[in-house]
Design a protein that fits this description.
The chain is an alpha/beta fold and about 400 residues long. The chain is built from 12 helices and 17 strands. It has a 5-stranded mixed sheet. A 5-stranded mixed sheet has the order 15-14-13-16-17, sandwiched between helices. The protein has a 3-stranded antiparallel sheet with strand order 9-10-11, with no helix packed on it. Helix 1 packs across helix 2, helix 2 packs across helix 3 and helix 8 runs antiparallel to helix 10. InterPro entries: ATPase_NBD (IPR043129), ROK (IPR000600), ROK_cs (IPR049874), WH-like_DNA-bd_sf (IPR036388), WH_DNA-bd_sf (IPR036390). It comes from Streptomyces thermodiastaticus. Keywords: Kinase, Transferase. Pfam families: HTH_24, ROK.
């Protein structure tokens, strides 16, 4: 990895500056008065926080924009200059690494996919380093510095230490990924669970903007859940909050890789669905794509498997709604390719299992390619850069 210049730091590391920057980033353009109302800060505190951000080029004042009068004088809105900085996000699966180069507003400028020939850290990390090098080269064409690298990995990830404690798809245990990636890239690195990273992207730049309480449920190779409570992404004391994939939904159901039986993941993950379709139909489908094709061709046994998975997902989402009362649950993941086969079961099971007002929670589907998961990793790097 070529050497990189010392990374630029956020120009005003105060809680007020970080809060104002984040508010303008997610809700802007905003006038100073609007920013004060949204943050609860005084107009003087907002002005003090905005000044160094404008001087450093992270915020831009739109003097020519139409504005509403404030106290008899024009109030010019401020916005984040997305082109002021770039960030890299990597999403690692068991088969490939997806990398994106985003701007400061987390808009994808460049995307790349690189296959993996092995899953051990000694095999994955050089591939990741080469991909980062390629994206850094792409960044040179934009004429601005890359200020952070985010990496998203499925499994038990300690963001505070940057350690991947366990990743089932990569088969990693206790890998100090932040230290290894920072040494290889020369960039500030953030490592997080992939579903939490996706949740950060939804909170700051997606369907969760403006919501205090919401959840992201992902279906596919695994079943994951990211939680936002009172405006903060929740990881819990041990970093595993939101593991609804291991909530039991079928008593004495099929065995799960965690050692229990009847977990949501053991019923509704791609691998579980594929295995169940083989068992029910006798057709030796090789993977989720073939299982889905069989169901779409009208095989009643395969369709029943998907209906059962939808019921389980609906009960799992109802558990989240009953415990936390979110305003919205965003359903995503590669498993949404089959959503037409179980959408009705998800909603019916949710309605039946949600208690009282929890049933008012909005269910919203948001199909996202893996590039969006890598974008989530970049969002965690932007979040870290802004001191949030």
């Amino acid at each position: 990895m070529p050497s990189t210049p010392p990374a630029e730091t956020f120009p005003a590391h105060t809680p007020a500056a970080s809060q104002i920057f984040t508010t303008v980033l997610t809700h802007g353009p905003l006038t100073r008065q609007e920013a004060a109302r949204r943050t609860g800060l005084s107009p003087a505190a907002v002005t003090k926080a905005v000044r160094p951000l404008i001087e450093a080029g992270f915020l831009v004042e739109d003097a020519g924009a139409e504005t509403r009068p404030a106290l008899g004088r024009p109030a010019n809105p401020v916005r984040v200059d997305g082109g002021r900085a770039l960030f890299i996000g990597l999403k690692a699966t068991g088969d490939e690494i997806i990398g994106v180069l985003t701007d400061l507003c987390c808009r994808i400028r460049v995307a790349r996919r690189v296959p993996l020939t092995g899953r051990a850290p000694r095999e994955v990390l050089p591939v990741a380093a080469d991909l980062v090098r390629e994206l850094l080269t792409e960044a040179e064409g934009f004429g601005v510095q890359v200020l952070g690298l985010g990496i998203a990995v499925a499994g038990d990830v300690d963001r505070a230490t940057g350690t991947v404690r366990f990743s089932p798809f990569l088969e990693w245990r206790d890998v100090p990924l932040v230290a290894l990636a920072e040494e290889a890239s020369g960039l500030p690195v953030t490592v997080d669970n992939d579903v939490r990273a996706l949740t950060v992207a939804e909170q700051w730049f997606g369907d969760g903007v403006g919501l205090s309480d919401f959840a992201v449920v992902t279906v596919g190779a695994g079943i994951g859940c990211g939680l936002v409570v009172h405006g903060r992404v929740v990881s819990g004391s041990h970093g595993v909050a939101g593991e609804i994939g291991h909530v039991q939904v079928v008593p004495d159901g099929p065995p799960c890789r965690c050692g229990d039986r009847g977990c949501l993941e053991a019923v509704a993950s791609d691998a579980a669905i594929t295995a169940r379709v083989r068992e029910v139909t006798g057709v030796p489908v090789a993977d989720a794509t073939e299982a889905l094709a069989l169901a779409r061709a009208g095989d009643e046994g395969a369709r029943a498997v998907y209906a059962r998975a939808g019921e389980a997902i609906g009960r799992g989402i109802a558990t989240v709604a009953n415990l936390l009362g979110p305003e919205r649950v965003i359903i995503s993941g590669e498993g949404l390719a089959a959503y037409d086969l179980f959408a009705g079961q998800v909603r019916d099971a949710f309605a039946a299992a949600a208690f009282g007002s929890a049933a008012r929670c909005e269910l919203r589907t948001r199909p996202l390619p893996f590039e969006e998961w890598a974008r989530g990793a970049a969002a965690t790097a932007i979040q870290s850069f802004a001191g949030r």
